[in-house]
Amino acid sequence: MASEAALSRPAPVENLTLWQRVYDHLRAEILAGRLEPGTELAEVALAEQLGVSRGPLREAIGRLATEGLVTVRPRRGAVVTPLSKEEFLELYQVREALERMAVKLAVPLLQPDDIAALQALIDEMAARADRNDVAAFFEANGAFHARLVDASGNTRLRDLYRQLLDQLGRYRRQSLQLRGNLQRSVAEHAAILRAAKRGDAERAAHLMSEHIRVPQRGLKALAAAEAESS
User: Which of 22, 90, 204, 207 has its CA 20 to 30 A from that of 193?
Assistant: First the structure.
């Protein structure tokens, strides 16, 4: 088996450092979609590929399991956690609740630099939508939502939100298909910011809920259509 120093930079490598590096690597692969939902994480093959023993690998997989990114099946090994349509919908429902609360908390606290940054992100989304640059659009889109969550000042809410996004981020392609028109999304963000500028936290929170419900409705319609055809 290859040396456990394969993932290391400095030497000697502490065991905690090693499993953390394995965890960081696997997590990045999962979130980027290179390890797709349902992929089996075969310990022997992975340990050899990464140049580590199975101990640090198991530590890393256990940590990923606590985040919901990996499912450990007794006596059958671990797989990258897949999401059913019902689970995907549940995540969106939780996201709606978190972001609605974040907006309510954030609006009274927004500073001029927050408003300027949010407007710049909307402008970036509009430019990317015009070019149909989907990847860059979603980068700006994610930054807009994250800025509002951070502005809420609620650390626990922010941490829960980021963990949730890790789950949803692997399904960006499906989210795009469910959302549809990018220009419509830009208009929805602009309406949220207008309400925030007026200091109308309730209106901004309502608009955020409506914005996040768009893919939820698409998912429900898709599930209903599949049920009718089955």
Answer: 90
